[in-house]
Design goal:
The chain is of the alpha+beta class. It has seven helices and four strands; from the N terminus they run ααβαβαββααα. It has one domain. Strands 1-2-4-3 form a four-stranded mixed sheet, with helices on both faces.
Length: 190
């Protein structure tokens, strides 16, 4: 089993980071059906990948605002993944980033238009132990924020049977797969 890469001084190229993220989407998110709507957007090529090399909160907030404006101006982009390689390594710092981005959406009248979902290499649900395989439903290769069009999400959920059960089903699937297997699956995307 390939190990999770340690902290490095030199990160891979942005192109490699995007390729790795695309592999994670295909093999984990779509492969495990954690998001039943992701496959369509991958096939359509409607996901924008934005790499941000800063852990400065203001710079990250500016990058998120720019992505909101990108979505405002380009209807061909359905969703954006903002990736922070090598940044926000501490999950608690990453949670601050999510909170600030949610506040930014609200402060700029984007509440109800866009929604932020979080993925992190050490993602941990509040009520779960660190080694719970269910955490891998949101464990990505790099810290990232998923900026979604809320109207598209509402439309997708309206046409999906029992959408409220998606998180529970995902957690159960990951737990049935087991920690070793789900970790191997995610780590194979490096």
């Amino acid at each position: 089993m390939p190990p999770t890469p340690p902290l490095r001084k030199e990160l891979p190229s942005d192109e490699t980071i995007v390729t790795q993220t695309q592999a994670w989407l295909k093999n984990v998110v779509i492969g495990c059906n954690f998001c039943p709507f992701a496959s369509r957007e991958v096939q359509r090529g409607s996901i924008h990948y934005e790499i941000v090399h800063s852990d400065d909160m203001e710079t990250c907030m500016e990058a998120m605002f720019a992505e909101c404006e990108r979505l405002d101006n380009d209807e061909n982009i359905e969703t954006t993944l903002v990736i922070f390689p090598g940044m926000f390594r501490q999950f608690v710092d990453y949670l601050d980033l999510i909170e600030n981005c949610e506040n930014m959406l609200e402060d700029n009248d984007y509440d109800g238009i866009y929604q932020v979902a979080g993925f992190h290499e050490d993602y941990q649900f509040a009520d779960a132990p660190a080694d719970d395989p269910a955490n891998y439903t949101n464990r990505s290769l790099y810290p990232m924020l998923h900026l979604l069009r809320e109207s598209s999400l509402d439309n997708a959920l309206a046409n999906y049977p029992d959408p409220e059960n998606i998180p529970h089903r995902n957690m159960e699937y990951a737990r049935n797969l087991g920690l070793k297997q789900i970790k191997l699956l995610r780590d194979s995307c490096w």
